[in-house]
């Protein structure tokens, strides 16, 4: 039995995101992700008026009669949404948890997909793939995805983005538009040196997936991750490892080092996405994500012209 509170939350998200899809995005989703290519349909005899560039020379040589390859436009697209369910996404200092923000962003993408008659699937991951819901169409399927996001209780605490991307590539046989919603934080995430100047462990898996699919990163952020408040001794806990430690936030040098480390982390993340030629959208727990998605759609539409 699904708790009444969850059902109310599902309904609220459905109403909010449906309105957002209708009023804000309109046809932007379709215009951005159209042009999904063409697929082979059949070989038939050449007829006057056919494009000579479509002639299948192998079949023509074999039969002695001109034949052409016929293609049809792919009308259906597969959308995959990968949701980070690790403990670091159960965090927020304003408005809503990162996990709740992820649910609302995923809902907008899902309703946009079904309005365009596309299939949408969902993968929950921590430091392992915890649940896979195959791509399907329809409103009832989308509502199930939203319920799953709100109700899902992960088994593990950590994050393994590489494992999630590799799994997605195995179960998705055709090219898919793939949104990965995560804060992109992993324990011991960087190889190379202790200062974190190497590349994230998930770099190769992300690069491989982006060559085959259209991968878009949606990064979950909270303002407190960038700046530490001046409020004396703080007992902090690493959400994924469970380790706790004390910092003196009244020490200006501590606050400055904290800010500098996080600026470097965000810059490194953005630099990686640029290197992989991968689009990304930054969203935050302190405000609406709609403007960020609108700007993303506008940028993609302009680039496609």
Fold blueprint:
Layout: H1 4-25, H2 28-33, E1 38-45, H3 57-63, E2 67-73, E3 78-84, H4 98-115, E4 119-125, E5 129-136, H5 139-151, H6 161-171, E6 176-182, H7 203-212, E7 214-221, E8 233-237, E9 244-248, H8 252-275, E10 279-284, H9 290-304
Parallel strand pairs: 3-4, 3-6, 6-7, 7-10
Antiparallel strand pairs: 1-2, 4-5, 8-9
Question: Concise description?
Answer:
This protein has one domain (4-26, 75-304): Rossmann fold, CATH 3.40.50.
Please describe what this structure looks like.
It is a single chain. The protein is α/β, with parallel strands linked by helices and 305 residues long. It has a single domain, classed as Rossmann fold (3-Layer(aba) Sandwich), CATH 3.40.50.410. 41% of the residues lie in helices and 22% in strands. The protein contains nine helices and ten strands. It has helices spanning 4-25, 28-33, 57-63, 98-115, 139-151, 161-171, 203-212, 252-275, 290-304, and strands at 38-45, 67-73, 78-84, 119-125, 129-136, 176-182, 214-221, 233-237, 244-248, 279-284. The strands form three sheets. Strands 5-4-3-6-7-10 form a six-stranded mixed beta sheet, with helices on both faces. It has a two-stranded antiparallel sheet with strand order 1-2. Helix 1 (4-25) crosses helix 5 (139-151) and helix 6 (161-171) runs parallel beside helix 7. The longest helix has 24 residues, at 252-275. The relative contact order is 0.14.
What is the CATH homologous superfamily assignment?
Answer: von Willebrand factor, type A domain
- From the alpha carbons, calculate the radius of gyration and give it in angstroms: 23 Å
Q: What would CATH call the class? A: Alpha Beta
Distance between the termini: 49 Å
Oligomeric assembly: single chain
Strand-residue proportion: 15-25%
The chain-level structural class is alpha/beta
The CATH architecture: 3-Layer(aba) Sandwich
Major beta sheet summary: 6 strands, mixed
Tally of separate helices: 9
Shape: elongated
pLDDT < 50 stretches: 188-196
Query: Percentage of helical residues?
Result: 40-55%
SSE topology string:
HHEHEEHEEHHEHEEEHEH
Summed over residues and divided by their number, the pLDDT gives a mean of 82
Order of strands across the widest beta sheet? 5-4-3-6-7-10
Tally of strands: 10
Q: How many domains, in number, for the residues? A: 1
Which topology does CATH recognise?
A: Rossmann fold
